[in-house]
Amino acid sequence: MDASGLRIALFSGNYNYVRDGANQALNRFVGYLLRQGAAVRVYSPTTDTPAFAPAGDLISTPSVPVPGRKEYRIPYAMSSRVRRDLKAFAPNLVHLSSPDPLGHRALSWARQHGLPTVASVHTRFETYPRYYGLAFLEPVIEGILRRFYRRCDAIVAPSESMAQLLREQRMSYDVGIWTRGIDREIFNPGRRDLGWRRSIGIYDDVPAIGFIGRLVMEKGLDVFSDTIDQLAARQVAHKVLVVGEGPAREWFQNRLPGAIFTGFQQGADLGRAVASMDMLFNPSVTETFGNVTLEAMACGVPTVAARATGSESLLSDRVTGRLIRPGAIGAFADALQDYCLNGDARGQAGAAAQTRAERNGWDQVNQALVDTYLRIIRQREQGMMPRSSPVP
């Protein structure tokens, strides 16, 4: 079998109603599958105001808003309409991109019908409670995740560091890599625009420290703010440039009154904003890959990041950027100060980062997941079942 023989049922908790790195990767992948002649059916919550048009056929699933985060929805059931659609579509593999209630039901449905399943890991859900004063729940969530992933034939992670963590957590006996690609037409050093910087209040001789991403607390906004406070106390000249939107924007603006907030950017505008930074600061520990880090690297911008899953697979400390112990405010400030005061070091790290980013083309990384699909289907045809506890 080649890709044209694939019939993929993809289940997602957020395929296109709120834009993020995970669902943009999924949409790119579905587009790639369709170009290879595969058939794809996507099952996900929908809204009347989606963030972007979906790739492929999208079937709406029952869902409710997440308490306190109403922009997100929890798909809670596999309705009879979805079951009828699945039966008519007749997939030969089920892809699960979120361990939500619908994902659990889809996994049970696949096992009942003897279909292989592949799960993609997009975020470290077990780390989220710590940002809301509920850290004691992390072992419980990790246990739920383990039960989910070990019922799948295989799981794929976006970075080797995340894959190794999943192995250490005993999430699966079959952990592969589905990394992320970069659009070099959008993200490249040529997008840097000093005129645009001046228009938003950043002078040529003032280093711009960038933040890119959804403005939610689990992105490390508290660590970012505390670090910037230290730079200000040290009287290090800089300007903070925040690119993104989200429910914590008001909190973030109050913490960083001198920062420039551009709101959500996409396409060429996003490429211009990233390339116009002098460094990216990414203190988050929740990412499994770090799309924004790769985008900055492709633009020749060095990154100061938390030494965590994802970033460790992209960055080489003191070569393409800096890797700092998570939450180490003083060490983050030291690294940013060095880049602010040393333009040569900044330039050398940016050039090395750009060279490293050239490895990630979208077609190459998406074919790796297609190859995983084909391997899992072949193993099932040969009678091989998932190496996991026999959970029904």
TrEMBL record:
Residues covered by the Glycosyltransferase subfamily 4-like N-terminal domain: 20-185
CDD domains with a match to the protein in the record: GT4-like
Domain of life: Bacteria
Name recorded for this polypeptide: Glycosyltransferase subfamily 4-like N-terminal domain-containing protein
InterPro entries on file: Glyco_trans_4-like_N, Glycosyltransferase_grp1
Molecular function GO labels: glycosyltransferase activity
Matching Pfam families: Glyco_trans_1_4, Glyco_transf_4
Organism name: Sphingobium xenophagum
Lineage: Bacteria, Pseudomonadati, Pseudomonadota, Alphaproteobacteria, Sphingomonadales
